[in-house]
Amino acid sequence: MKELAFIYDGQGAQTPGMGKDLYEAYPAFRETMDAVDPDGSIRELCFNGTEEQLADTRNTQPCMVAVEVSITALLADAGIEPAIAYGLSLGEYAALAAAGVFEPRQAVELVAFRGQVMDEAARAFSDCGMAAVLGADPSSLEALCAQVEAEGLGFVAVTNYNCPGQQVISGEGAAVEAACARAKEATGAKRCIPLAVSGPFHTRLMAPAGERLRERFVSETFAPARIPVLHNTTARALDPVLDAGLTVADILVDQVQQPIHFDRCMENMLAAGITTTVEIGMGKSLSKFVKKASKEAETLAVFDCESFESVKEALNG
């Protein structure tokens, strides 16, 4: 079988009813979902929750990762496993579970805590925003954000480097609006698309959440990774020379308050010779990023029964 990268969706990919058909159809999915959610509260949200309920950061994070680790178990049951893994934001926890760093239930419990502390940190800001910027020059966009802050209009920063031609900015609402208003002239951007968010995620404004995570990680066990996991902040697996003294816990603390470099994760995956990805979550948004990085890449996705059977056929014949 060809070498695969498993890539895991982040917040925003959630959909009502997610995972329900997989739970009903496949014992491997059902057993894992039951194991990570013994009281059934996550299943109730996934299967019967409204869009509004699922969009709540405190619910989104455990729901998404519960579904993702269960899909990973389903793929493993079919003999489909990754050579490398990474995820977008909270998807990094599912990638770490795929690599054996976390047990599946541990990953779900950790992102439930992460969602709680991120929500609490976000509540300190009455007005915040996030916007996808399409077609901008990244360096010019960084300079624009710095200029907006220097002018006293509020804090805004580039927080997600998703793929060639797409970045995300986040920060205080007025500052995000000002950056969007100037983006076309200052950066060559084609469009700015406001995103529905509940906080200035992946910025320094999330430092309180990072500190809460650091305290929590003291009591957690991090096992050695069985496969490389490309981290959002460094875009590479932990390297004993380049990352001397840095731990997975340190990286995850940094991750909530520093920019995400999904674009560089894809570049490093392709440089390693892996050109087939299996997106795990509830859609194909990350697969579109991969296609922008390499038109030759093969992108697959698992999010329901039909897509699972299609991937199984494509990879197992």
Characteristic key phrases:
alpha/beta, 14 helices, Malonyl-Coenzyme A Acyl Carrier Protein, domain 2, single chain, 49% helix, four-stranded antiparallel sheet, Alpha-Beta Plaits, four-stranded parallel sheet
How would you describe this protein?
The protein is an alpha/beta fold and 317 residues long. The chain folds into two domains: 4-122 and 204-316, 3-Layer(aba) Sandwich (Malonyl-Coenzyme A Acyl Carrier Protein, domain 2); 128-194, 2-Layer Sandwich (Alpha-Beta Plaits), CATH 3.30.70.250. The protein has helices at residues 20-25, 27-36, 41-48, 51-55, 57-77, 91-98, 104-122, 138-150, 173-187, 207-217, 248-255, 262-271, 285-293, 305-316, and strands at residues 4-8, 84-87, 128-134, 156-163, 166-172, 191-194, 276-280, 298-302. Strands 2-1-7-8 form a four-stranded parallel beta sheet, with helices on both faces. It has a four-stranded antiparallel beta sheet with strand order 4-5-3-6.
Number of helices: 14
**Fraction of residues in H or I helices:** 40-55%
Structural domain count: 2
Beta-sheet strand percentage?
Answer: 5-15%
Unreliable stretches (pLDDT < 50, length at least 5) are none
What kind of sheet is the major sheet? 4 strands, parallel
Q: Numbering strands along the chain, what is their spatial order in the largest sheet? A: 2-1-7-8
> What is the level 1 CATH name of the largest domain?
Alpha Beta
Distance between the termini: 10 Å
Would you identify the CATH architecture of the largest domain?
A: 3-Layer(aba) Sandwich
Give the beta-strand count.
8
| Rg, nearest Å | 19 Å
